[in-house]
Amino acid sequence: MTTKSVIFLTAALASGFAMAVGEADYSVSEEHCTPEYWEKLPDGKKTEDLIDKCDDLEPSENGGSGQKVR
Asked: DSSP code of 61?
């Protein structure tokens, strides 16, 4: 493995790790459909979209909430 390849691989891994650590997860899940999780997210369209998607779930799918709290 050449020095150039090692540098490229290191940079790619570091970049991927930084993106994974710094980006919030807006996927719909039982964990993400709670007011406690929403409070940790920044205000914005992505957060509002997540809340709307969670509100559309059946109560059993979102921890029984079914209400927008934020």
From this structure: G
CB neighbour burial string for 30-53, b if at least 16 within 10 angstroms, e if fewer: eebbbeebbeebeeeeebeebbee
Q: How do the domains of the chain map onto residue ranges?
A: 25-70
Q: Where does residue 24 fall: left (phi above 0), alpha (psi -120 to 50 degrees), or beta otherwise?
A: beta
Cβ of 8: how many Cβ atoms within 10 Å? 11
CB 47 within 8 A of CB 38: yes
pTM above 0.90, yes or no: no
Residues 31-58 pLDDT 10s: 999 999 999 999 999 999 999 999 888 6
